[in-house]
Design brief:
The structure is a homodimer of 190-residue chains.
Chain A lengths: L6 H5 L20 H4 L1 H5 L12 H18 L7 E4 L2 H13 L9 H7 L2 H18 L3 E4 L5 H18 L9 H15 L3
Parallel strand pairs in A: 1-2
């Protein structure tokens, strides 16, 4: 809260050569925060900066930020796993029925279902369009298709890695002789 | 080097209510780095991302980043203190003449003077325009006018603070009585 809303994500960006996974990420700021006005209020923004334009401005910031990352060599893949209202109800009831899933249950999830159409509008207004623009793989994780959704995400990640055309470092010719010598030394050990 | 070039600045951004001072800052990335190709090379960018457009892309990233900060409540003031080539020569010679200034001297500064016009083009190409767009106060810190330049910068900072119309927190009516009681208690101490 003491910083701009992108800051906490930027701080933990992966280094070159590393993969970072952001579960929900700064998209919370244009979706969850948009659906719950008290979350926005808690961000201590000057009143003059809070207007109806704020969500479009945040999408603009996200696009600019990711464009900068991409131009700095970061490959970004975004996944939106859609769950229908009916499917969510089923999953929430499972959490109430099964004692092993009680820990996952939050009254807040039930309360927020009341704003379902509000959230959907937020997704459609900017989220979906924005995800699409960034070559996101958007899949529907409905019903028993959770396993399928996971496969699709895994395949997209494999594709992204293959597109990088990564190679093991090439061994310079001189080095090969040294490797042969080392083999010889190991084999002649008593 | 393990991160995008904005990252190290973002990490140390001041919290709400704090003032941060960036000496040179990410403008190094469009000025110093532009003037010295080996600095860009050291950033390990994929070759496909390094083109003639890279400087304009970096200015775009800076503008987007600062727009995001401004919309998050950060007040930004940028200062560009210009020194002429003649004045720089005088200052470098002073560092060679005065033993107390030897520590400040770097052969690198002399070497980079050879690219003076290159640097000036970089400033004019994007730097000056960009600074202006962000309501920067650009002053010439020439000759004996260093004291004057400092005054101008200080005045701009005072202006920025005054524009925030900061106030001490208001004490609620009930609290006043509690303060009076505390005064009474302090005064009646033996």
């Amino acid at each position: 809260m003491a910083h701009d809303w992108l800051w906490r994500c930027v701080r933990v960006l992966p280094e070159r050569g590393q993969i970072g996974i952001f579960n929900r990420s700064y998209y919370e700021e244009v979706l969850a925060v948009r659906g719950a006005p008290d979350l926005l209020e808690a961000q201590s923004l000057p009143a003059s900066l809070v207007s109806a334009k704020i969500w479009e401005q945040r999408f603009q910031a996200i696009r600019g930020f990711e464009r900068h990352l991409a131009r700095s060599g970061t490959v970004i893949r975004k996944f939106f796993l859609h769950v229908s209202k009916k499917e969510q109800k089923k999953r929430l009831l499972e959490r109430l029925d099964d004692p092993d899933k009680h820990w996952k249950f939050s009254e807040n999830d039930v309360r927020q279902r009341a704003s379902w159409s509000e959230y959907m509008r937020a997704y459609e207004d900017g989220g979906a369009r924005d995800l699409d623009r960034a070559r996101a793989v958007v899949r529907r994780a409905r019903g028993q298709q959770v396993v399928y959704a996971r496969l699709v995400v895994a395949a997209a990640i494999v594709d992204a890695l293959e597109e990088l055309e990564l190679e093991y470092p090439k061994v310079p010719p001189g080095r090969k002789k040294a490797l042969e010598r080392a083999r010889h030394e190991l084999m002649s050990e008593k």
